[in-house]
Amino acid sequence: MADELSAERARREAAPAGLSGILSAMFDERADASWRVTRAWHAVNGDIERAHTTGTFVRDPRRGESGPVLVVYVDSLSREESAEIERACAELPSTLRESVSRAMSASYRLQRDK
Fold first, then answer.
1. pLDDT value at position 15?
2. Residue 90: predicted pLDDT
3. Which residues contact 77 (CB under 8 A, 6 or more apart)?
4. Mean per-residue pLDDT for 78-94?
5. What gap in Å lies between CA 91 and CA 108, rounded to an integer?
6. Are 104 and 86 in contact (CB under 8 A)?
7. Exposure pattern of 6-15 as b/e (b: 16+ CB <10 Å)?
8. 54, 74 contact by CB (below 8 A)
9. What pTM was estimated for this model as a whole?
């Protein structure tokens, strides 16, 4: 019985302190790499960068690259173009909305760059 109490005390002392520590530990265990990358990106950048970030992910290294590559999508469209894309995608199912929005954004950028 004393061993069980000692083990429980040691477990509690090793546990994160406070609710935020407990939740953070729980989410870190269960979160996929994409979510952790997005959280880290937002933590290290300022308000302007966060406002223009539209997506992040880590892709596997390609031939000759030494490790995983962080890919960050940023919004470089005008407010009018962004609003137009948002209106066009508003009625789409949530599973399609983000990918269609990215495709439309890329299309606008290509047209502008020509």
1. 60
2. 92
3. 85, 105, 108, 109
4. 88
5. 20
6. no
7. eeeeeeeeee
8. yes
9. 0.41
